[in-house]
Amino acid sequence: MDSTDQSALPVVLSVSGLGKTYAEPVLADVSLTLRAGEVLALTGENGAGKSTLSKIVGGLVEPSTGTMRLAGAPYAPASRTEAEALGVRMVMQELNLLPTLSVAENLFLNRLPRAGAFSFGWIDRRRLRENAREAMAQVGLDAIDPDTLVGELGIGHQQMVEIARNLIDDCRVLILDEPTAMLTAREVDLLFEQIERLKARGVALVYISHRLEELARVAERVAVLRDGRLVHVDAMANLTSDEIVTWMVGRELGEHIDLGERNLGAPLLKVERLARGSAVRDVSFEVRAGEIFGISGLIGAGRTELMRLIYGADRKDGGSVSLAATPGAPPTPVAIDSPADAVRAGIALITEDRKGEGLLLPQPIAANVSLGNLRSVARHGVVDAMRENALAQKQIDAMRIRSSGPGQIVGELSGGNQQKVVIGRSLARECRVLLFDEPTRGIDVGAKFDIYGLMGALARDGRALVVVSSDLRELMLICDRIGVMSAGSLTGVFERGSWTQDALLAAAFAGYRGRDALLHSPVSNEAGSLG
């Protein structure tokens, strides 16, 4: 169902009856059109088929069924390179950059300017820098030196470099897969400005995101996938966010969640004057058994650094971590100088970077779940495959991981299901304290509520949960108390029922007041990351 407002625009791309089957069908009978100068929002739960459809269009995956046409001609790219040569480009969540090369080299890796006809392979560095500055200016990266190594940039700037790379030369179709997940509010505004310029040039865009407020801001139409099938296509103006969610998950999700009856016990985790340089400054708090304690704050406030210190991933300058040896007993200091010490003490960290630090993507679910639980699945030092698969199946069932079984490669799972594998591994270790760092980043609303429900079950079991999130609404939905980090310090702790969004935001800025950093750092640009 195409919007009548868009019907006069020429069709750039059409797909008909597209399907893809691996061990089981992941995409079935999808038909869509994409018109010049429009943004089509593509949304759905994790595992709904969004990435598979995008990879087919982008030449990374061959469809099992169906056909495609580009500007009226048959279109069946055998590779991403072939698709890009035809003007179909894709910015994926997994960045396609080389960290040891400069920004300029990454931008023009396959078309480096030569010094002359008899250059013998020498690169014209002056022209490369000029070309790079021109490309970077399109996405607001004018201030970055083109000779800077990509690995030295923050993840947000890397994302913008990837976007700039895909805008070079002729671009007819641009697919953006969760493009704002790592961007500050200022960078998001720059991206949306660039999208408007691309639309004016007649570029057709597919915009994949779980942030429904963004879809309403940027897209003319929305297409919703559920369980690999296209269930609804309509003009964005015809749908509310709640209606889109209902199409996505097949049921209504309210703004409230019942985490069940819990009895908060005595303090289980106690952090006293924990410090590391200027990143974490004398932070103290305690978390009771059965409690969900949130950590809020601006990007760069020290939230992740605090989690890493508690877990022993970074060396602290001072302070201590204490745990209760038995329920009701007072917490006593424990020596945690490494993640191995934390695991032995019963502390688990569900990392912010699940792909880089939390999972072995080429390995099956079974191997990932048993990682750190080898004693329970090994006999005489050798992993027992039956035990390993049984442990993995137990977590698959408990976590409702959508997969073909313990043998499925983790890299083939959706982001939400990958996150469930990370959590499942920690649950298999029976950890008493769980540190969640951005547990729902990049996953859909249905998977989020699954994870919220899981957190409620863990809290009812008497475990202590610490949850870092950039989404204030998320913390206000699930937490019993919220501590706010600002410039490395804990500036306030708020009880449920006494907090307001304004009070939490004020505490997030409190540590920066009176400092020149407030004017010159990205703090003011990143306030939007608090939701």
UniProtKB/TrEMBL annotation:
Which SMART domains does the annotation name? AAA (SM00382)
PROSITE patterns (alphabetical): ABC_TRANSPORTER_1 (PS00211), ABC_TRANSPORTER_2 (PS50893)
- Identify this protein by name: Sugar ABC transporter ATP-binding protein
Q: Does the keyword Repeat apply?
A: yes
What are the entry keywords?
ATP-binding, Cell inner membrane, Cell membrane, Membrane, Nucleotide-binding, Repeat, Sugar transport, Translocase, Transport
Q: Which GO terms describe its molecular function?
A: ATP binding
Asked if the Swiss-Prot or TrEMBL record annotates the protein with the keyword Ubl conjugation, the reply is no
One Pfam annotation, family name? ABC_tran
- Per its UniProt entry, which superkingdom is the organism in? Bacteria
* Every ABC transporter domain range: 10-252, 259-512
- Which PANTHER family does its entry note? CARBOHYDRATE TRANSPORT ATP-BINDING PROTEIN MG119-RELATED, D-ALLOSE IMPORT ATP-BINDING PROTEIN ALSA-RELATED
Q: Which organism is it from?
A: Paraburkholderia sejongensis
